[in-house]
Amino acid sequence: MSKLVIKFTQPKEMTTSEFCNLLEKHSISIGAQTSYTKNEYLISGYLVDLTKFIAEVESDAPAKQWVDYVYENQVAAV
Asked: What's the CATH number where 44 sits?
């Protein structure tokens, strides 16, 4: 299974420390910052880890609901 690279915007209400802690908790790697004004980054991980990460950041919705989001925002597979 390949790791997926997606664009993700750090929520404004989340501190950088909180953001980094969640990335680490879900085994997500952070890459380049693609937009300094939007706090948008390239992050990579396995589908299951990305969906759990996004579910925790964005809402209490089940992780499987975020699968489409991951594929819509995917920029590469590594």
From this structure: 3.30.1370
* The total number of structural domains that make up the chain: 1
10: which 2 tokens? 């750090």
Distance, CA of 39 to chain centre: 12
Q: What are the DSSP calls for 28-41, one per residue? A: -EEEEEEETTTTEE
Burial (CB < 10 A; 0-12, 13-18, 19+), residue 61, is: exposed
Query: CB–CB of 66/49 below 8 Å?
Result: no
pLDDT at 65: 82
pTM score: 0.85
